[in-house]
Design a protein that fits this description.
Layout lengths: L2 E10 L13 E9 L4 E6 L3 H9 L10 H5 L7 H11 L7 H22 L3 H5 L6 E2 L1 E5 L6 H17 L4 E5 L17 H13 L4 E5 L7 H8 L7 E5 L7 H10 L4 E3 L5 H10 L5 E2 L3 H4 L2 H13 L3 E2 L7 H12 L7 E3 L8 H5 L1 E2 L9 E2 L9 E2 L1 H15 L1
Parallel strand pairs: 5-6, 5-12, 6-7, 7-8, 8-9, 9-10, 10-11
Antiparallel strand pairs: 1-2, 2-3, 4-14, 13-15
């Protein structure tokens, strides 16, 4: 079997809002085709036009090759070998950032393709399943422009998530910093009011996670505010500081009464190792597409396990990434949860429409996937509709 083509689909949601703190408004989906008619599907969370350029651009020398040209004619079953070829062959342009993000989409598609070719779910080819089901948490991120509506929407969404069967919820409480929702600016201390409301709404038996999305300017501010959350029994506080502030992470991780989580923007195991060993975080959050795909995410999980750290994969895209995270969690003993953006709580049409036969939650858990590959399919009508929006935007 040989790879014959790589298709890149740039997708955009109609009437997207550039002030909204959500990358669920766009996507790049890749399809890797073979001479035996088997196709693998993947995606990644990065500007889709940039990712497409990384894949489709021709190379001019052996350390600056385009990703697609390195795949054409290759054996798609050699997934791990192809990851190394892509990483080394693009090294002068990549090694980190958007090129590795693009590799992540391709690697995800290769794992899907290999599973389909061999008639096995991806997790069966990644390792030995260590659980029969995966526990998702509901990500809650209201898109409103005043504090009262934001607080009330968050509490309402938390109630709805629990009513839908979720055993864990994550409040995206971002009232300051680069991700401040729709320009909403409030004192950091008001986040305590939101979290108190969420904890009261879901009761003591539902896990509550919180993501502040780089809101705090320094470690001391983070520690001062987090101290007020001690009694909420939070599973973790995600990304309190800018990702480059490893010294700050080390200080917050050592002194916080609540475990600290981070890693969503980082690429390759090498950046995640810095976060673990220098930043001292207790929960590691590789985004499967961004970190370099399932191949690299599995390496990160193993390194975290060696250090006694927990894994909670980040994702903020469609059912494609949800499926990839479920397969990763299936073989990762130190993974307690995966992120799950419920379609009925999402404002993103892409999240709702792009995939069919996606994984479903039953009694608060996702049963171990059994279909070959990732186990999901694209809705072709939705793919074409969102691709047309992207084409119109690009002119």
């Amino acid at each position: 079997m040989r790879i014959t083509a790589v298709d890149c689909h740039v997708l955009v949601q109609p009437a997207f809002d550039t002030t909204a703190a959500s990358s669920a408004q766009d996507d790049i989906v890749v399809e890797i085709h073979t001479d035996e008619g088997i196709t693998g599907i993947g995606e990644t969370d990065v500007n889709p036009w940039i990712a497409r350029a990384c894949i489709e651009a021709p190379g001019t020398h052996n350390m600056g090759l385009g990703l697609r040209e390195m795949l054409i004619g290759a054996d798609p079953l050699d997934v791990e070998g192809l990851w190394q070829r892509l990483y080394v062959g693009s090294a002068m342009n990549g090694r980190r950032g958007a090129v590795v993000n693009a590799i992540g989409a391709l690697d995800m598609a290769l794992h899907d393709l290999r599973g389909k070719a061999l008639g096995k779910p991806c997790h069966a080819l990644l390792g030995t399943a260590c659980r029969e089901s995966i526990t998702p948490y509901a990500s809650l991120q209201p898109e409103v422009d005043n504090f009262e509506d934001y607080r009330d929407s968050m509490i309402d969404w938390a109630r709805r998530a629990v009513a839908a069967g979720f055993r864990a919820v994550k409040a995206e409480v971002t009232l300051e910093g680069p991700y401040a929702h729709n320009g909403l600016r409030e004192p950091w201390e008001r986040s305590t009011e939101v979290l108190a409301g969420v904890r009261g709404a879901v009761g003591p038996d539902v896990a509550v996670l919180v993501d502040v999305q780089y809101a705090f300017p320094d470690a001391d501010t983070a520690l001062r505010v987090i101290a007020d959350w001690r009694d909420f029994d939070l599973y973790f506080v995600e990304t309190p500081l800018w990702p480059d502030d490893l010294e700050g992470y080390a200080k917050v991780s050592a002194r916080s009464p609540i475990p600290i989580a981070a890693g969503e923007w980082l690429t390759t195991r090498f950046e995640l190792l810095d976060l673990m060993d220098r930043g001292g975080v207790q929960v590691v959050q590789p985004d499967i597409g961004r970190v370099g795909g399932l191949t690299e995410a599995l390496r990160v999980c193993e390194l975290a396990g060696e250090r006694g750290l927990r894994i909670v994969p980040h994702l903020w895209k469609t059912g494609i990434s949800i499926a990839a995270a479920a397969h990763l969690a299936a073989v990762t003993p130190n993974c307690d949860y995966i992120e799950f953006l419920p379609s009925d709580l999402s404002a993103s049409g892409l999240r709702k429409d792009l995939t069919s036969d996606e994984l479903e939650m039953v009694d608060g858990v996702i049963p171990l996937p059994q279909r070959p590959g990732l186990g999901i399919e694209l809705d072709r009508d939705a793919l074409e509709r969102y691709a047309a929006e992207a084409a119109a935007l690009a002119g």
